[in-house]
Amino acid sequence: MKKLVLASAISISLLSLSAIADGNMTSSLKDFFSDKGTTVTQDNYPTLETARQMVKNQDLVGVNNILHKRELTPTDKQPVVRMNRDTYYSMAVVDVSQGAYITMPDIPKGKYMSVEGITEDHRIQPMVYGGGTFNLTTHTGDHLYLVIRLDATFSKEEKKMYQDQMKITAKSNKPFTTEHVDKTSFHNVEKSLKAKMPMLLKTGGPEATFGMFTAPTDSSKELFVKEKYAVGAAIGWGGAQLIDNIYEVSGNYPADTCHQMTFEDPKNKAFWSVTVYNKQGFMFGKLANASSNTAIPNKDGTYTVSFGCGKGAINNIPTKNDSGVFNLAMRHYIPSDRVRIDGYRLIPLIKAVD
Question: Which of 332, 350, 201 is nearest to 263 (CA)?
Fold first, then answer.
């Protein structure tokens, strides 16, 4: 029986290598798109966008190696929509087929560090936090995409020290491979999925993003909504489970009008942040966000964040950009019970200011 299983595994491996050699599969972004590639639909978009992210990272550092972003996400180079400057990022594609784990360094108490696993079909595993050794597994395929977030308040020297201590150990190092994809249908489906977000905001309100980022292997599966799952991959690929991050996403506001929101501190277990994007979902300008780590509180302990209100306004983020509008993403890192259970939301508090 064991010989039969081994023979089957070798046969499958040879078939995979043959497919790559024949040009039917790829392990690189360079030829991910092809005129004869798979037609993209709403159903397969999340998996194919994940494949694109995997081969893109793999091109840079290979498999089982960590790509460290040594600076906060630059506003002129963003790999996916709705990136942020809340944390330093590190990413990796890991072959978990024969067993794998990641070792994370110990960091000072009160600082933020997390590891998030994204499976080949864009299902989101719950995060693990802090130092230690964590087992890496998946419910589908052989590879797992890791997103590592590290506290942005570390100095450059501290950040590099902690990133360099992160280590992946895996018993197999096969590259991730994917089918070729038709470029036109990919971008058409992506555009149509992004266009669904305003209606989800209108009908879902504070719970618009619920059901986008879940795993079939834990209780989050009860929230899974197929349409939201597809939209989530288009508007915020790699988003976290609700237990780890709660996202508030706004509609568009005119970029030439001052807006403000004043709110009570939600007292998240990590921190809150708000990031400004253009119509396409990308940051612009040098200052794109504010957070409880950077914002100046009011005398009564509340916070006021200003958008496009000028340099003299408290906690102001510029909003003028070529798209003519701006929108917001509010993130609650390790949300408090008031946010996660009681439904406390901040974006509804935004108002235009004369």
Answer: 350
What's the one-letter identity of residue 41? T
- Is a pLDDT exceeding 70 seen at residue 13? no
The two tokens of residue 109 are 């108490």
Q: Are 167 and 105 in contact (CB under 8 A)?
A: no
Q: Are residues 138 and 207 in the same domain?
A: no
Q: Over the chain, what is the mean pLDDT?
A: 92
User: Can you say whether the dihedral through the CA atoms of 202, 203, 206, 210 is positive or negative?
Assistant: negative
N- to C-terminal Cα separation, the chain: 77
Residue at 249 is within a domain: yes
Same domain for 288 and 337, yes or no, is yes
The encoded tokens of residue 256 equal 């030439």
Whether the CB-CB separation of 310 and 258 falls below 8 Å is answered with yes
Please state the pTM of the whole predicted model.
0.87
How confident is residue 123, by pLDDT bands cut at 50, 70 and 90? very high
Q: Are residues 79 and 122 in the same domain?
A: yes
Contact 212, 351 (CB under 8 A): no
